[in-house]
Design a protein that fits this description.
Elements (H helix, E strand, L loop, with lengths): L3 E2 L5 H8 L6 H12 L14 H10 E2 L6 E7 L5 E7 L5 E9 L2 E5 L3 E3 L14 E4 L2 H17 L4 E6 L9 H12 L11 E5 L3 H10 L4 E5 L5 H7 L8 H15 L3 E7 L7 H11 L4 E7 L13 H13 L3 E4 L13 H9 L1
Parallel strand pairs: 1-2, 6-9, 9-10, 10-11, 11-12, 12-13, 13-14
Antiparallel strand pairs: 3-4, 4-5, 5-6, 7-8
Length: about 350
């Protein structure tokens, strides 16, 4: 008999799935809380259900977090960053990262197995895009960490969809996962503490506007002009950077959320003061903040980290022009920190 995956379903979907087994709605609510509030990874943990009910559930359903396999794990020397390569039952695997900050724990999740955006500085797409992740598979990355954090009396408080894949090309699954994280009987994470990062898929941003979402939006920009952005990010041919910024500004105005523009600084490629001035022209008077990211070296791509003085000079040009700007605090620098590196290394060894 084929078992149905229960993890990743909404309360209403769960109630419908359990109805043929004679489970009343309040039982579904209990199970919902076990999965999303208490981070249970097995039916055996659901102690307010009878043994017979738990056996029924085990015979008919599965819980994905309990089926995950840790293919690889890396921890930073400071103990603040943990990166894992999680294997799903079908043999595919994705990376997810737990980061400990002074304000709590954040998790960076992947939305696809691999990626087909072909950004020249990124390791995520080295083997192409295999498939979209389901809502449950996106959530399972967070709950892998939440299960152990709960034992310490801690919890995940922020989620960023910035791992491998393009979230806007798997938007329905991503949004359902975030809605379940926001649910009262889930982790109750505020939408203010969730971020979706995109290469600039304009129809996806338009969907967020239409639905009135309040989730933070991050744009992977990385270049302030057409020629260089197309070189770094081929998607610029389809969704031009100027049009992306215009649509992102519409999202900022309708949502009231400042848009984050991510800008990876690559040595002698996009880190000059002239590039900084072009970026100022592009983003002046926008509801925006620029997040400067010194590049993590990706050996397969041949890009180098910028010099510290180049990072500072770039920062100062933006700051003097009254552009909100930060330099990303580097976490996990001593492990395979760039998106896709851990998976790429695993596939190469196979």
């Amino acid at each position: 008999m084929t078992q149905q995956e229960l993890f990743g379903t909404t309360l209403e979907e769960m109630q419908q799935a359990l109805l043929p087994l004679g489970f009343k709605k309040f039982r579904a609510e209990q199970i919902f809380r076990w999965l999303y509030e208490k981070a249970a990874s097995s039916f055996a943990e659901m102690t307010n259900l009878s043994k017979e009910q738990r056996t029924q559930l085990e015979n008919n359903f599965t819980i994905l977090p309990g089926q995950l396999k840790v293919v690889r794990e890396q921890r930073s020397t400071d103990g603040l960053t943990t990166k894992v390569l999680l294997g799903f039952p079908d043999g595919n695997c994705v990376e997810t990262v737990l980061m400990q900050h002074d304000y709590g724990y954040s998790v960076c999740v992947s939305s696809q197995v691999g990626c087909n955006m072909n950004c020249s500085f990124c390791a995520s797409g080295l083997q192409g895009m295999v498939r979209n992740l389901t809502c449950g598979e996106i959530l399972a990355q967070i709950y892998y960490f939440q299960h152990s954090l709960a034992e310490q009396g801690a919890r995940v408080s922020r989620v960023v969809v910035m791992g491998s894949g393009e979230p806007m090309l798997n938007l329905e699954a991503v949004l359902q996962a975030l809605q379940l994280l926001h649910a009262d009987h889930g982790l109750g994470i505020s939408y203010r503490n969730m971020t979706i990062s995109t290469c600039g898929i304009i129809p996806g941003i338009a969907t967020l506007i239409e639905r009135g979402t309040k989730i933070n939006l991050a744009i992977s920009l990385h270049a302030p002009n057409d020629e260089l952005r197309t070189e770094l990010m081929p998607i610029n041919k389809k969704y031009n950077y100027a049009d992306v910024v215009e649509m992102a500004e519409r999202y900022a105005q309708t949502s009231g959320r400042q848009v984050m523009y991510e800008y990876i600084l690559i040595d002698k490629l996009n880190d000059s003061e002239e590039m900084a001035r072009q970026l100022v022209t592009l983003l002046r008077r926008k509801l925006a903040v620029v997040n400067l990211i010194p590049a993590n070296p990706v050996p397969e791509k041949g890009y180098r980290r910028p010099r510290p003085e180049a990072v500072n000079n770039f920062f100062q040009v933006l700051k003097k022009a009254n552009i909100n700007v930060t330099v990303r605090r580097e976490m996990g620098k001593d492990i395979d920190a760039a998106c896709g590196q851990l998976r790429a290394k695993s596939l190469q060894e196979k």
